[in-house]
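Chapter review: from sequence to fold.
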Amino acid sequence: MTARPPDAPATQEREHRKPSLLLAAIPVITLIVLLGGGYIWAELPVEPLLIATAAVAALINWYLGYSWDEMITSVSHKIAKTMPAILILITVGMLIGTWMAGGTIPMMIYYGLKIIDPRFLALIALLVTAIVSLCTGTSWGSAGTVGVAFMGVAAGMGAHLPMVAGAVVAGAYFGDKLSPLSDTTNIASVATQVNLFVHIRHLLWTTGPAFLVSAVVYLIFGINSAGGQIPAKVGQTLANLDAAFNWNLLLLLPVLIVLGGSIWKKPTIPVMLVSSACAMFNAVVFQGISFKDAVVAGVNGFSVEMVGKAGFSADSVIEDVARLLNRGGMNSMLGVLLICFCAIAFAGIVTVSGSLEVLVERVLRPVKSTFGLIAATVATALATIGITSNGQVSLLIPGEMLRGEYIKRGLHPKNLSRTIEDAATVWEPILPWTSAGAYMAGTLGVATLAYLPWAVSNWIAIGFALLWGATGIGIARLTPEERAQMAREDI
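The token string follows.
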């Protein structure tokens, strides 16, 4: 920075004015209009729409007397605070790629498919897709692979297709929410500045009961789906996985390292790096993958062409298996990171003038209780996902807007991170107009509104969120010291 000469006149600072409710609402209204119109109807990329909204917010800030330096400083400050979580996202990409190469994720899929029993098809579909989604961190990937296999089983048996499709969606999103590899789980952690594993553990208060209710429903209503034959595609999937990988219990060690790190509350990134190193060891020693390809899998993602097992040919792998396995790598997270940076830029600029505080204060003025705050959070997240149809934005914006209010009321922000996932992440695939809803309907061959009632855990989770808000059960509160410290960090 060039120093100002001693005899130069001091720069006149413009007077800062507090935004009116109308001015404070303009950036949010612009966000709704641009994402609702541009993203949903015109199918434009979400990133430039977020930047355009940030530009509108910047113009309002300038009108209120704030300089560009003040705005960019605010953006930089927010990026700095979220950088640890962003680094976790990048490490997650490495974890997925190396777990694929080492055979950890393929082994989970293989033995998950082996337990298919036609007598309990819907229940097993819930469990297996949940396991695959938990291990891969992708609800779309698990639904588009093992989920499709289950739909084939259901069709061959004459089973109730909407129920099985609902079980697939419920399992896929249950695993996705609890997976440290999931982009939405990491984004919820970023938006609310809550430790990733703290967020995941707190999710169990709502996600766990919702999953158990789903399991009971599928057990009761799905037991009549007995009979029929398992389609050949499931057998082909098993044969391809068996041909490509060598199985042994050491392949589960990378998973145990991550679980152990979570239980004993060890730093997230070092734990993930150790797990990735272990998976790379498995890839080289047990799967015959070269050390170079093991490293490349961590950066660019795994590919079945890397497999070095004797007698295996990548050309023999069916498309469904290749689509499931060819993923991961740090580069795979760049798209998610770009959306995060654009949303953080918008939040940083809006924060400068206090527009978010004005809006939140007006919206939450009649809210006096913990239940009311949880209900308001649910309503905000549902409205955001319903209008924007974008899962990442529906986590980032409410998380940024409401975090301060939770701290102010003595509630831990992990209550917020849990609630926005309950009302945004898992609702996206059961809304017909969202990309997730369209994807699930097209992939599973069942209309969104047909499987919606059967995706029990997706819509019942907010019921548990409201119940805990009303009773105080599962609501984490801050000590005065924690509250003061978090308030200082947000300054």
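Two observations follow directly from the output. Residues 83-333 form one domain. The chain has a mean pLDDT of 85.
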